C-alpha cells in the first residue's frame, strides 16, 4: 500500500470574496435583447428546475407568457414579457456560485425546525440571491460544500451519471488492515448494494489516515463503508469536489468561484 497525493490539478482560485460576473461566451446570444432568451433557460434561471424539466413543463402547458400558454420549446422570451408557472411570476436571478469550507457542527440544509446551526448561517448574507447547497455533508463532516442558485448545474454535479469526483480525508479509530483495504478497493456490499470506490490510499505511517476518491452520492457513503468493516470514522474532511480544492480557503470561510472555475464545471 503506497501513499498518494490526493490533491487534483488546480483549476482556478480566488482569494477574496469579491463577486465576479459570470459571462459564458456560448450564452451571449441568449442575452441579446433582440434575440431573447430561450424559455426553458428562463425557467431554469428562475430556480424552478433544470432546462430538461422545464421543457416538460412547457409541453404540459403549465407555462404562460403574457397570459397565453406557450408550448413551443424554442420560444424566446423578450425583455418585458411576463412568464408564469402555475400563476406565479418567474423572475430569473443572476447565477451565483459560492464555495464554503464547512466546519464541524453545522447541518447541510437551508433551514432547521429544531433551531440547530445550518450552513446557511455561514453563507446566508453572502448575496441577495437565494442559494442552496449542492449535495450534503453530515453535521460532523467538514470540507468543501458548493452553493448556487443554478438548478441545472446542481443536478449535473449531484447525479451519479456525470461521475463528479469527490475526495475525502478519513481518520479512523484504528489502523486499517491489508485485508480490509483490499476489500474496499474491490468493492464492499452494503444494504443498498455494492459500492466501488475510484481510488484509495493510506496517507499516514500509522495506517489510520486514508484518502478516498468516489463519485457516487449515496447518503453517508464514506462513513458506511468503514463502519461496515467495523471501523469508526473519527474525522471526515472533503478536500476536493470536482476540480475545486480547499487551497487558500480556511475552515468556516467562503469565496465566490472564478469565471474559469464555473466554465470548467459546466
Give a structural overview:
The protein is an alpha+beta fold and 266 residues long. It has seven helices and 17 strands. It has helices spanning 39-45, 51-59, 120-123, 151-158, 178-186, 221-228, 259-265; strands at residues 37-38, 63-65, 68-69, 76-77, 83-85, 88-89, 97-102, 132-134, 142-148, 166-172, 188-190, 193-195, 199-202, 209-214, 233-241, 244-245, 254-256. Strands 7, 8, 9, 10, 13, 14, 15, 16 and 17 form a nine-stranded mixed β-sheet that branches. It has a four-stranded antiparallel β-sheet with strand order 3-2-5-6, with no helix packed on it. It has a two-stranded antiparallel ribbon with strand order 1-4. The longest helix is centred in the first third of the chain and has 9 residues, at 51-59. The two termini are 35 Å apart. Mean pLDDT is 87; it is low at 5-15 and 24-34.
Oligomer: single chain
The rounded Rg comes to 21 Å
Report the mean per-residue pLDDT as an integer.
87
User: What ranges have pLDDT less than 50 throughout 5 or more consecutive residues?
Assistant: 5-15, 24-34
State the total count of DSSP E strands: 17
Number of helices: 7
The biggest sheet amounts to: 9 strands, mixed
Cα(first) to Cα(last) distance is 35 Å
β-sheet strand percentage: 25-35%
What global shape is seen? elongated
The helix fraction, in percent, is: 10-25%
What is the H/E string? EHHEEEEEEHEEHEHEEEEHEEEH
Q: Which class of secondary structure composition applies to the elements? A: alpha+beta
Amino acid at each position: 500500500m503506497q501513499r498518494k497525493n490526493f490533491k487534483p490539478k488546480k483549476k482556478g482560485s480566488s482569494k477574496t470574496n469579491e463577486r465576479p460576473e459570470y459571462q459564458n461566451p456560448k450564452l451571449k446570444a441568449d442575452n441579446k435583447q433582440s434575440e431573447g432568451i430561450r424559455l426553458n433557460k428562463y425557467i431554469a434561471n428562475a430556480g424552478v428546475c433544470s432546462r430538461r424539466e422545464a421543457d416538460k413543463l412547457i409541453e404540459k402547458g403549465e407555462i404562460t407568457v403574457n397570459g397565453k400558454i406557450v408550448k413551443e420549446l424554442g420560444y424566446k422570451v423578450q425583455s418585458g414579457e411576463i412568464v408564469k408557472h402555475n400563476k406565479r411570476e418567474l423572475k430569473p436571478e443572476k447565477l451565483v456560485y459560492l464555495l464554503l469550507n464547512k466546519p464541524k457542527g453545522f447541518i447541510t440544509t437551508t433551514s432547521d425546525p429544531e433551531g440547530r446551526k445550518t450552513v446557511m448561517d455561514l453563507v446566508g448574507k453572502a448575496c441577495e440571491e437565494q442559494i442552496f447547497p449542492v449535495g450534503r455533508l453530515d453535521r460532523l463532516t467538514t470540507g468543501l460544500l458548493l452553493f448556487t442558485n443554478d438548478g441545472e448545474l446542481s443536478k449535473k454535479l449531484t447525479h451519479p451519471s456525470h461521475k463528479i469526483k469527490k475526495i475525502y480525508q478519513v481518520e479512523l479509530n484504528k489502523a486499517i488492515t491489508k485485508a480490509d483495504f483490499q476489500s474496499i478497493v474491490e468493492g464492499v456490499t452494503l444494504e443498498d448494494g455494492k459500492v466501488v470506490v475510484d481510488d484509495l490510499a493510506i496517507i499516514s505511517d500509522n495506517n489510520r489516515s486514508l484518502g478516498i476518491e468516489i463519485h457516487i452520492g449515496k447518503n453517508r457513503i464514506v462513513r458506511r463503508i468503514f463502519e461496515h468493516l467495523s471501523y469508526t470514522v473519527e474525522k471526515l474532511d472533503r478536500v476536493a469536489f470536482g476540480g475545486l480544492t480547499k487551497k487558500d480557503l480556511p475552515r468556516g470561510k467562503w469565496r465566490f468561484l472564478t469565471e474559469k472555475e464555473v466554465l470548467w464545471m459546466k
